[in-house]
Please model this.
Amino acid sequence: MKTRHVTLSPKASFSLSLFAGLIEEGRLRKGWTRDELADRVGVGIVTLRQVAKGSPRVAIGTYFEAAALVGVSLFTDNLDTLKREHATQRERLTLLPKRARRQPQDPIDDDF
Model:
């Protein structure tokens, strides 16, 4: 199988690296080996090593699961608050158009 290449902006790359570092820090604070965390997340050790490196090829859900397990706060630790925020965000989405449309461009004025 061909490996796909993912190119991230510098900001996204730095953010992913930071997230990976927070997960690694949480793992070490809990005293878990990478094998233990991989088992808890439900992935192989190779995937967890990629998480620790901040690889953009790993599914975001894997990052979120690892983060939640080691205690990295994603949004809030309170499930009720998280549910309330989710409902509020869904309500905001209903107020927006269902899809984005390209904005019409002004006609070119080439009359000199």
Remarks:
- The domain at 10-95 is CATH 1.10.260.40 (434 Repressor (Amino-terminal Domain)).
- The chain has one domain: 10-95.
- The chain has a mean pLDDT of 89.
